[in-house]
Structures are given as structure tokens and as C-alpha cells.
């Protein structure tokens, strides 16, 4: 169950990272409220996952899921570049997450 909590926490991390862009410096109420709610849920689920997972592994995977998702949505929603080197680096993060899961 801890791995599921951790994965969902990573998804909410994507939500608040992308949400920050839409808050316009915390000047828009609804995006700000959703972003803050995503932060709370993300950290809460990370805390639950840490009850049984090593902190280094859990934190690395949480940030990795968030990084991959945020970079992907940046490309898809915000028109950020998707060059070969950037995609290769994202692939390395995926490999790191898979590796950590396999050894944990």
C-alpha cells in the first residue's frame, strides 16, 4: 500500500508544480486553493508512505514522479521544448525510479 501512496503523492506533486504556474504568483484564488490542496495531499501521502519505506528511496521516487510528470505536462500544456537530450534525461529519471523500486 505504501508504494501506491507514494505514486499518488507523486501525482499530486505534479498537480501543485503545474498549479504554481496558473496561480500567477498566488494572485488567482481558485488555482491557488487547488495548488495548496495538492501540496497538502501530496505531503500527507508521502508521510503515509514513509511509515514503511526508506526515506531516501521514497523521497527520490516522489520527486522523480513529480519531475517526470511536470516536465511532460510542461511540454504538452505549456509548449516547453521536447528535444532529444531533454527526453533522454527524463528517461534516465524513469530508469532511476525503476531501479529504486527493484532494489527496495
UniProtKB/TrEMBL annotation:
The alphabetical list of record keywords is: Cell membrane, Membrane, Transmembrane, Transmembrane helix, Transport
Gene3D superfamilies membership: 1.10.3730.20
Q: Which domain of life is it from?
A: Bacteria
TM segments? 33-50, 57-78, 84-103
Give the way it sits in the membrane.
Multi-pass membrane protein
Looking at the UniProt record for this protein, which Gene Ontology cellular component terms does it annotate, in alphabetical order? plasma membrane
Q: Look up keyword Transferase and say if it applies.
A: no
Q: Name one GO molecular function term.
A: transmembrane transporter activity
SUPFAM superfamilies named in the record: Multidrug resistance efflux transporter EmrE
Q: Name one Pfam family in it.
A: Multi_Drug_Res
Cellular location of this protein? Cell membrane
Q: Which GO terms describe its biological process?
A: xenobiotic detoxification by transmembrane export across the plasma membrane
Q: Which family does it belong to?
A: Belongs to the drug/metabolite transporter (DMT) superfamily. Small multidrug resistance (SMR) (TC 2.A.7.1) family. Gdx/SugE subfamily.
What is this protein called in UniProt? Guanidinium exporter
Query: What lineage, starting at the top, does this entry show?
Result: Bacteria, Pseudomonadati, Pseudomonadota, Alphaproteobacteria, Hyphomicrobiales
Amino acid at each position: 500500500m505504501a508504494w501506491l501512496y507514494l505514486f499518488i503523492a507523486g501525482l499530486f506533486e505534479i498537480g501543485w508544480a503545474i498549479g504554481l504556474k496558473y496561480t500567477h504568483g498566488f494572485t488567482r484564488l481558485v488555482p491557488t486553493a487547488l495548488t495548496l490542496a495538492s501540496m497538502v495531499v501530496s505531503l500527507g501521502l508521502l508521510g503515509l508512505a514513509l511509515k514503511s519505506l526508506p526515506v531516501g528511496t521514497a523521497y527520490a521516487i516522489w520527486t522523480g514522479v513529480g519531475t517526470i510528470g511536470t516536465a511532460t505536462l510542461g511540454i504538452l500544456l505549456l509548449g516547453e521544448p521536447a528535444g532529444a537530450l531533454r527526453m533522454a534525461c527524463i528517461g534516465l529519471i524513469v530508469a532511476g525510479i525503476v531501479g529504486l523500486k527493484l532494489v527496495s
